Amino acid sequence: LLSVQEDDTVDVFTSGRKMRLTCSPNIDTKELKKGQTVRLNEALTVVEAGHYESVGEISTLREILSDGHRALVVGHADEERIVW
């Protein structure tokens, strides 16, 4: 989960891309937190709130960008990413 919007949609990162999705009526979006895992159905609707991952990817910090909130990191196979 990347963020929750005021209209109760959520931004998630899935299948290598960022998407804005709707939530099932039984999901309390006020309880969702950034970084939490969510389960999607076939229609790409959030149907269940999960936990936080206990594993991740090791990356090397290359530089902190001028805004002070984002950084350039290098991961697996020298892949560069901007993170915040």
From TrEMBL:
Tree of life domain: Bacteria
Organism the protein comes from: Mycolicibacterium rufum
Name this polypeptide is given: Proteasome ATPase
Keyword Nuclease: no
Residue ranges occupied by any Proteasomal ATPase N-terminal OB domain in the UniProt entry: 2-57
InterPro entries: NA-bd_OB-fold (IPR012340), Prot_ATP_ID_OB_2nd (IPR032501), Prot_ATP_ID_OB_N (IPR041626)
Keywords attached to this entry: Proteasome
Domain Proteasomal ATPase second OB: residue ranges: 58-84
Transmembrane feature ranges: none
GO cellular component: proteasome complex
